[in-house]
Amino acid sequence: MSYIFGPVPSRRLGRSLGIDLIPFKTCTYDCIYCQLGKTNNITSERKEWFPLENIVSELKEKLDTQPDYITLGGSGEPTLYSQIGELIDRIRSMTNVPIAVLTNGSLLWQDKVRKQLMDADLVIPSLDAGDKKMFYTVNRPHPDITFEQMLEGLIAFKSEFEGKYWLEVLLLAEYTGTVSEVRKLADCVSKIYPDRVQLNTVSRPPTEEYAISVTKHQLKEFAKLFEPPAEIIADFLGIHQQIDFLSTKEDIIKMLQRRPCTINDIANGLGIHRNEAIKHIEKILENGLLEQDTLEGKIYYRCKVKEYEDA
Ligand code: SF4
User: Fold this and answer.
1) Domains of the chain
2) Whose CA is closest to 273, among 39, 76, 52, 141?
3) Which residue, by CA, sits nearest to atom 4 of ligand 1?
């Protein structure tokens, strides 16, 4: 199991060394726009999903890559990792590299979760809906999580946290991308009072086809409804994708035409998140272009065709 990926280039975080704390795809939400696909384990249960010691020892080996940030995220919601506070402490004791946490914010109403994040340098939570109805429509949360609790958590954390707090707001055409919905969001944001508000929209295939992006022009207009105006980060992939994935299915096919690779080889070789590599591999497998072999417990993929045209 590999828990660390990168460093990968991220426009917001520079060279970001990511830590995957949660199994794919475990989350408190099942967002209609999620680019990681449907949540197959929707939960509010916090636990040590992977052994802390294994994560720490793998991280130690990667610190010489000198990243700009160490980013706690994962294939779902990282605050579901019950040892996240201890992990932050352990990272602090090993390096001065700043620590960022990318979270959907759904568990910040829990005192314990807020306390565990206090020593991070930057926390980027998200807010995708300005009221309960839209929250259930867009985020499809675990039944334990209510809109009111989620919003209270975002507000409480801002009042206690001394690090940087950037709030990401993702807008969807025909859902949250309307003037009236953005006004509701802006109203919530005025209660949270984040250091920055960053507007985003869908930029990769979403879980539900009907989750579509707003235009750049609309984003610019919506940004003015926040006080102070929001920043626009539409060409980012959103906090739950963490990084700007640079490679495509075509790059992976080219790589596999040269030599057989594991998922980790692909992810490391192309500087992408392992889950992004898995998504592409699943699609290419469906197209019948790959064969796979297992060697010493590892699965290797190889491209069956020499000339790739359109997978
Ligand atoms: S977008 Fe983030 S919060 Fe929503 S389902 Fe995907 S991983 Fe979970």
Assistant:
1) 4-232 (3.20.20.70), 249-303 (1.10.10.10)
2) 76
3) 31
